TrEMBL record:
SUPFAM superfamilies: Actin-like ATPase domain. PANTHER family: EXOPOLYPHOSPHATASE, RETROGRADE REGULATION PROTEIN 2. InterPro entries: ATPase_NBD, GppA/Ppx_hydrolase, Ppx_GppA_N. Residues 56-375 form the Ppx/GppA phosphatase N-terminal domain. One of its GO terms (molecular function) is pyrophosphatase activity. Residues 14-23 have a biased composition (Basic residues). Residues 1-38 are annotated as: Disordered. This is Exopolyphosphatase. It comes from Pararhodobacter marinus. It comes from the Bacteria.
Length: 383
């Protein structure tokens, strides 16, 4: 598959929604309401290629406070590369996980929610059927969002990490089935408004004549969704036995997908340039750099790393080999099988855009969904 292009350059996958009328076992579908005020709870669910994750939170100042969360590796995309369809086993695991999510939503009486599915469901031929199955068996109505929306929400989630001196921003989101890159020009935005400007970012046409720059607003220079994530990239190179050779091939193969991304052709400036990386790969590399035997979000989220520091961690992973990575507590049991494909993507990006600092974001689509809902309802104070 080729990388997704901005609207106007290629068609986006259609959003697949289940019928409006359905029977919900164990009660009615959770209500969707807006404008619940400061005390209202919000939920965001992200069904990806590898994981099913949900956050339930309440607004608190310019941020939000997490009330409950859920995360499970359902491996929904297993076999998708070869068959083009979601398998029965992965779908069954996912429905089980979503039943737990439904119970949590009911227990907390959540009235504001957005529940989305991403790359695996965008690509699978039987995804519409699966979405109907989810609604029928759990009462949850998921929407399959296009890559454009996934990229926008990843950017929104990173707004609190944008430095006031940043003029050129690259946000990278390495997922299970795809990787999103968004390049944003903040040079015309006053320093004190740059974080808030990120919340208003919209992705669309590349042409300045069709998508003019609003005065004092963030400008999206370009964005791309590469249909290669940690799971899909790994599946494409399972026939390569040598660990180091497989890693090198994955990294160069990913870089080949970036040629149509306009900033790929231009060297990045050092001054005023910031990369924010959000994904399990990036946070795992950060945890390894810190030597954390037990993951600590407070130490990882917002950490700054240089290209050289990232490269050293990746070289350490290669030196460990498959068995060493499997037993390394910094990587973890759920991540060891995916870390090298993710590291291959990350190394390719650092090779193209070496930086003195990459900000690590332990946040992503779920946080973006929450910020977007709360911003819409006006329940957050200014960033």
């Amino acid at each position: 598959m080729t990388p997704e292009r901005p609207a106007g350059a290629a068609a986006h996958p259609r959003t697949s929604r289940p019928p409006k009328r359905a029977r919900f076992p164990g009660g009615q579908e959770p209500k969707r309401q807006t404008g619940s005020g400061e005390k209202g709870l919000y939920a965001a669910l992200d069904l990806g290629t590898n994981s099913c994750r949900m956050l339930i939170a309440r607004p608190k100042g310019a941020q939000f406070e997490v009330v409950d969360s859920f995360s499970r590796a359902v491996e929904l995309g297993t076999g998708l590369e070869s068959t083009g369809r979601l398998g029965h086993g992965p779908m069954a695991r996912t429905v089980q996980a979503l039943r737990i999510c439904r119970r949590k939503l009911d227990d907390h009486s959540v009235s504001n929610m957005r529940l989305v599915a991403t790359e695996a469901c965008r690509r699978a031929r039987n995804s519409a059927e699966f979405i109907r199955k989810i609604q029928r068996e759990t009462g949850l109505r998921l929407e399959i969002i296009p890559a454009e929306e996934e990229a926008r929400l990843a950017v929104i989630s990173c707004a609190p990490l944008v430095a006031s001196e940043t003029e050129q921003l690259l946000v990278i989101d390495i997922g299970g089935g795809s990787t999103e890159l968004v390049w944003i020009d903040l040079a015309d935005v006053p320093h004190e408004d740059r974080r808030r400007a990120i919340l208003a970012v919209k992705l669309g046409l590349r042409s300045e004549t069709l998508n003019p720059r609003a005065k004092g607003a963030a400008r999206v220079v370009d964005w791309i969704s590469v249909p290669l994530g940690v799971a899909t990239l790994r599946e494409q190179f399972t026939d390569v036995e040598d660990d180091a050779a497989r890693f090198a091939l994955m990294s160069w193969h990913f870089e080949e997908q970036l040629h149509d991304f306009s900033p790929y052709q231009n060297p990045a400036p050092r001054d005023g340039f910031q990369i924010i990386g959000t994904s399990g790969t990036v946070t795992t590399v950060a945890a390894s750099y810190l030597g954390l035997r037990r993951y600590d979000r407070n130490k990882v989220d917002g950490l700054r790393m240089t290209s050289a520091q990232i490269d050293k961690v990746i070289r350490d992973y290669l030196a460990l080999g498959p068995e060493g990575r499997r037993s390394d507590p910094r990587i973890g049991r759920e991540r060891h099988g995916l870390i090298m494909s993710g590291a291959a993507i990350l190394q390719a990006l650092m090779r193209v855009w070496p930086t003195d600092v990459m900000s690590v974001a332990d946040r992503g689509l779920r946080e973006g969904l929450l910020y977007a809902q709360m911003t819409r309802d006006g329940v957050l104070t200014r960033l």
